[in-house]
Design brief:
The structure holds 2 protein chains of 2 kinds. By secondary structure, chain A is an alpha+beta fold. Chain A is built from 5 helices and 13 strands. Chain A has a domain of 156 residues: Thrombin, subunit H. In chain A, β4 and β5 form a beta hairpin. The relative contact order of chain B is 0.18. Classes of the chains: A alpha+beta, B mainly alpha.
């Protein structure tokens, strides 16, 4: 392809100046980008209102695509279900038998739990969700793993609130504007969640790796007690998540813990629930520096 | 005349009699298509790893490479700002990198004025790989081996998608210059 002749300026002063101005503006744009990038590094939420404005405008399209997504998923599962019907039927029968037994056991445990709680006077209410909604989109082209919600401060969301689906933890609310918010998914490399093994008290941190798996880092090092297939649930430490929500299943052991697969994949969920922060008082206390707490007696209340 | 050749009084953009190009359409289509390409990946839910190519940047590359001189050199800043608001990157990263890409392509074109499809594809592939690495570096994510490995399919998909984007840009360019406005 021949080069365009329009940019050969020749002796025309006007053409020379306009080409020069173009280059100057482009360089200024790059410098402006660098400055804004530095600003976003220092203050990550400085541009949240702008982002929120754009994502609330684009939210209706996201809603539509979310509905389509859940629709296509059910079509796909119908097709795969048709092919696997026979073997699946046998497998499900077997599972059902075991599940019936487990349910009877669970009933007994629940009854005993209720009795013991009555004994201790510990009647913790059911968690009332702040909102039930769909994930309307994600940062699909970026190295970060964010999802977007089309609800925000008007519906009572605040940063830090847990986002869970019916299967388990999805992530937590990171940035809230008037009618849009951004969720940090568990698979993001900056996401850390305190977890424990379901059934006993092996405590660990679940960190995102950026490739879809979670790194389970044990807190007590030594013999690695984890096994393949262990279910990790939230431990409630930190005060954001209520304890006992499923997070991930261990798939591979490493020297200092394990790699785990998500239980609740955000793309496979239909609706997600935004829950209130489990121990808001503890979270606020952890964020208050001790100096201020001591200096101002009203701050702790 | 029409009996000899039915397309005698038309060019590739339609009939030349009483029809001309719409200036609005001719101006708006490149910008609208790049903005839409920036927006489209946010509709998909990539929850495990980055999977969707950086479509906004690829569309910018497509227009820049297919139609040199159509977009002004400084266009990386405003279009990048819009991309930053949607992409999940820290604000300013696309402003910086799209501006640098426009300047870089300008310099490359001054160095190699005659070029063809294969060279364009090579240019685009290099630009995409550098862009993805730079974007990951400034995104605030911890750059470890698993994340970089997870980005390989995204980069390959993006490189393989460039010829398609080039066709889309060519189609949009025909649409942009279609003679639709009545003169009289």
């Amino acid at each position: 392809m021949a080069p365009p002749a329009s940019r050969r300026t020749g002796y025309s002063r006007k053409a020379q100046y306009s080409v020069f101005t173009g280059y100057l503006l482009a360089a200024l744009g790059a410098v402006l980008g660098l400055v804004l990038l530095g600003l976003s590094w220092v203050r990550p939420h400085a541009f949240a209102p702008l982002r929120g404005m754009v994502s609330s405008i684009s939210a209706p399209a996201g809603e539509a695509s979310a509905v389509t997504r859940s629709g296509t998923q059910s079509v796909w599962s119908t097709v795969t279900g048709f092919w696997q019907a026979g073997s699946q039927n046998a497998g499900l029968r077997e599972e059902l038998e075991i599940a019936r037994i487990r349910i009877a056991e669970a009933d007994a445990v629940a009854a005993e739990n209720a009795r013991l709680k009555d004994l201790l006077g510990l009647a913790k209410d059911e968690v009332k969700p702040v909102a039930v909604t769909r994930l309307v989109g994600s940062s699909a082209a970026s190295a970060r793993r964010y999802a977007y919600l089309s609800i925000g401060r008007r519906q009572g969301l605040t940063p830090g609130m847990p986002v869970v689906s019916d299967k388990g933890v999805i992530g937590r609310v990171l940035e809230v504007t008037r009618s849009a918010s951004r969720v940090l998914l568990l698979t993001d490399t900056e996401s850390v969640l305190p977890v424990r093994r379901a059934g006993d008290d092996v405590v660990a941190f679940a960190e995102g790796r950026g490739d879809g798996l979670l790194k389970i880092k044990l807190i007590n090092l030594g013999l690695n007690p984890l096994k393949k297939g262990d279910l990790m649930v939230t431990s409630g430490a930190g005060g954001y998540f209520r304890p006992g929500v499923a997070v991930a299943v261990v798939t591979e052991l490493t020297s200092d813990g394990a790699l785990a697969r998500l239980v609740a994949e955000p793309s496979a969920t239909n609706f997600v629930t935004v829950e209130p922060i489990y121990e808001a008082v503890a979270v606020a206390a952890a964020q208050t520096p001790p100096e201020r707490e001591l200096a101002d007696p009203a701050a702790g209340e | 005349m029409e009996q000899l050749n039915p397309r005698a009084r038309s060019d590739r953009y339609g009939s030349r009699i009483n029809r001309t190009q719409s200036p609005w359409r001719a101006l708006a289509v490149p910008y609208a298509s790049i903005a839409f390409a920036s927006f489209a990946p946010t509709l998909l839910l990539a929850d495990l790893m980055p999977l969707v190519p950086p479509l906004g940047f690829m569309m910018l590359l497509g227009w820049r490479i297919m139609r040199p001189g159509l977009l002004p050199v400084w266009v990386g800043a405003p279009l990048g700002a819009f991309d930053d608001l949607l992409s999940g990157q820290p604000f300013g990263s696309a402003i910086l990198m799209w501006s640098l890409a426009m300047i870089g392509l300008e310099m490359l074109e001054a160095r190699f004025p005659w070029r063809g499809f294969w060279q364009d594809w090579l240019t685009a592939a290099l630009a995409i790989v550098i862009y993805l690495l730079a974007a990951a570096a400034v995104s605030g994510a911890t750059l470890a081996t698993p994340l970089l490995m997870a980005m390989v399919p995204q980069a390959l998909l993006a490189i393989l998608l460039y010829p398609f984007i080039a066709r889309v840009v060519a189609g949009l360019d025909r649409f942009r210059l279609t003679r639709t406005r009545r003169l009289a």
